[in-house]
User: Fold this.
Amino acid sequence: MSTAAAVINRRDIEFLLREWLSIDVLLKRPRFENHTPEGIDAILTLAQDIAERELVPILRTSDIEEPSIDAEGRVKVLPAVADAVRLLAEAGLFASVFDERVGGVQLPHLVHMTVLGILMSATIATPSFLLLTVGNARLIVTFGNPAQVAAFAEPQIGGQALGTMCLSESQAGSSLGDIHTRAVQDGEDPLGKRYRITGHKMWISGGDHDVTANIIHLVLAKAADPLGRIVRGTKGISLFIVPKVLPDGTRNDIRTIALNHKMGYRGIPNCALNFGDGHHSPSGRAGAIGWLVGEEGQGLPQMFQMMNEARISVGMGATMLAYRGYLLALDYARNRLQGRPTGVKSGAPVAIIEHPDVKRMLLSQKTYAEGALSLVLYSARLLDEQHTAPTASERQLAEELLALLTPMTKSWPAEWAQVSLDLAIQIHGGAGYTRDFAVEQLYRDNRLNSIHEGTTGIQAIDLVSRKVRRDGGQAFRQLQTRVRATCFKASSRVALKRSQTAVEEAWVLLDAAVAVLLAEADEARALSNASAFLNACGHAVVGWLWLDQALVCDRALENRLNESERSFRDGKLRACRHFAETELPRIKLWLDLATSMSDVAAAMPVEQF
Amino acid sequence: MSTAAAVINRRDIEFLLREWLSIDVLLKRPRFENHTPEGIDAILTLAQDIAERELVPILRTSDIEEPSIDAEGRVKVLPAVADAVRLLAEAGLFASVFDERVGGVQLPHLVHMTVLGILMSATIATPSFLLLTVGNARLIVTFGNPAQVAAFAEPQIGGQALGTMCLSESQAGSSLGDIHTRAVQDGEDPLGKRYRITGHKMWISGGDHDVTANIIHLVLAKAADPLGRIVRGTKGISLFIVPKVLPDGTRNDIRTIALNHKMGYRGIPNCALNFGDGHHSPSGRAGAIGWLVGEEGQGLPQMFQMMNEARISVGMGATMLAYRGYLLALDYARNRLQGRPTGVKSGAPVAIIEHPDVKRMLLSQKTYAEGALSLVLYSARLLDEQHTAPTASERQLAEELLALLTPMTKSWPAEWAQVSLDLAIQIHGGAGYTRDFAVEQLYRDNRLNSIHEGTTGIQAIDLVSRKVRRDGGQAFRQLQTRVRATCFKASSRVALKRSQTAVEEAWVLLDAAVAVLLAEADEARALSNASAFLNACGHAVVGWLWLDQALVCDRALENRLNESERSFRDGKLRACRHFAETELPRIKLWLDLATSMSDVAAAMPVEQF
Assistant:
């Protein structure tokens, strides 16, 4: 396999974090007082070092040698995968965002997300252990009692145990109100209210493995009252901590019954788990022991905290597959000789990067990959604002903006990384279709990102229904204020004129479309082409972020810069213009559809298919 | 793996061949006088039977157990693959389109292509042996001498030997003028001018295997004169027949040095071959023996006949992957229960086909799959016209239209099948990402179709440069005449009004864009956004074909029809309207770009990426 190209362009990260997202301002806040810009650089260098030395080599091997399950239901991962996860733990990367009081190091989410991205660029699946474990521990830290934090969160923060989120069941994927898993109260102990959990969970990433001795499952289940009655729908869902190994060292009643064999993303096992099927007998009888987190019936809102962060992380994973695919295609295009410029019949072949169609594909890749990265890091920055901004109103604004952006941050990178990786394969030609090059795997790996943590269709419903209509467009207007500020600043700059006009036009259309969606009384009609609206929003937001970055670059170009600095910034300006020219015009088409309330598809009788 | 769903909707085929493409008119021509509509039905039933009984089972097994090569360079395929190919030969399917004088059965290309499609719907790779062999034999029949036809074409027509096309080399993929393979004259014998061939060929599908004893390679090489001089560029290319086993039963000097490991399409080996490296010594010395086809320097124009037919077949393969993916997603969506309609909180879950977003995805799949099928079959019908239309002018018109449509027939199905299969996976959710369901494999299999037989970028250059600009837009105007005729007929029908308007508008834009491209003196500028022009043309053509089919359906709906017939036709009308509403608007965007001559991408300095 080609091992060319780094996993990240550090110059780009430097630009995004320092120049564009003002990380130095963030680092001056009390929470981050132990960190310096130089310290952050060192952490990113450490992550890049681990990524390039330890993770790049397992990209392909973990694809070929999938996790396996033996006759006793024990799951094994590739030893190199287990070693890599342990290395991440030793490097302290599980502790990044946590409070010092629970063993954390209080880094900004912006830095944690960048680290995660650098790791995922090397191989997406294995760092997912980190993603899941951090999300799990954060949920326990936020909603659990002190004993639960000490027993179940801190070992994860230290990287001695890994975590999962157990939501889906075979019959309940996107529809969690239909879960069958049941919890029956079983007394109380220092860890809280104890329950016996019975049920089947599906699609559990990291659900079992031999990396760590213990695995902390966070399980959604319905608590039954003494008469066995449950609350219907999502309101009956509660959240339980269900460890693989109980505090007394005995095995909990959890069994892996199968592994799912995926088309990619194979560096982490994906399991079907049985809880409480009697395979083990903790405290002498069947039933998995779990402890309630918070109150009964609060499972879904609690889990949403984890899901929302997980959604940003999924966006980051998709972004970095696109990013790596871009770096690999760029490297290939610079080195592969083939053909000559139009009209030239003889002489030596040129590098294919000289061909206009290859340049077009590379530039599109750049706009998708770097555009997605700006979206995800902007969201991560908002997460920091939500938690550390000086005033309550700033914190609330950040929370509202982040809630609005989350469906886009999750789905835009997932969808457009696939388009971008398709181009990466195309640039490689026949070579890209072979397993001798990494791009075909990146393409397979990324295909999951539009599905897990809420499909793109689910994100579209979330955006229209919960994020735009529920607050009457308030968060949308806040976002629009930021877009207008960027456009205003860009309007006086010649090099940005076209892009600024295109972004402004897109947002005028989007504003009108939001008004139509808000005015629609019938929820089902408003949702009839929700996915087109999501597409339009994602493009409009990324277009704005491109313009906002171009503004920073254009200003810097007024200074004396060396060749490489000038090229870097000119490249960003050109990518911004390419996005404005080739991508932003799509917005009108999507919005026309979203606001037409067309029922050509929605009203199609089943028998006409 | 899910084995649900047939490989084809025969009602659809019946509609396309009989009602839409008037196969009965074709069958009345002298060449096809031995065939009846009932006979054609029987052939299609035979193909479907082979596809569903013999080919469906090897879809997954041939993906898992790739072809292998042993230490002696012998290539083995899965025994079931070899058996299936032999079954196709026994069924006479290699003989379909050939003249009776060479052992053929004189079926229309339209029927042959439909048969190929039905087989490819079950599994694309294995029927590619058929595709390649028929193309190879047709080339020898067309350009070879009688002795070559008897020795090398007839065994392929009988299915006793299989054929390949050996064009690419590691350093010369899309740029055939740069091939290094050399041919040196070596006397003459009853089979023609004999040469010794030396060189390396890459990406050779079916390049070696254990299905048949002999393999007939058609090899592009440059003939050197006695002083070793060759003609530069593509004009120096000649075509040679180079059999694996020579007529005297000895091994020719051909060696398989490696197999390519692809991300899909694994039911046929893809080889790197050495010719004349001295591994064998035919007639006592190194050098592969080959016989010249036609004249020296005619290799590329001759090969183009095979490539053009192969391009239609590639379009058919992509189409059928999309088609099967649609049938599988439809079946899954009808049976998978999940969620409830918007606003409904309780009661039993519904089949996911009831959800608007799933309907949208299924309807898009239908428009892509059935739209692609209409394009490919329309092209196959033109191939029959080219060869059998009553007058010379009709035959020439068909040839010109087919030449114009070929880049679209090759690339439109390839590109949009991938979009369609992406939706098929999405409808399956997490299940679609596992290898327990076929859609992930179809998605991997199809990814090759935008690459082989000329990448989409190459097709775009072919369309703009050779097919539109070279004849001053003449063929385009002929096509436009047909489009106008359809629009005129549709204009009086209420149910088609919107679609007709959308198609008409699209063609007005296309007409203007063609004028811009024709007026551009600078070839490089005209080509600067060729791929956007190809996209636009493909959509405009498929939109027209949808309208043309909808016209037939709408007329039929005036008659008394049973429920299922009515649904079939209403479904086509709805698909036409969905295509007009969601797909045709894209054309303006592509044409704006294609005619802007924008050089944002093309002029990007390499160091700015």
The beta strands of chain A are 68-69, 75-76, 161-166, 182-189, 192-205, 214-224, 237-243, 254-259, 270-275, 288-292.
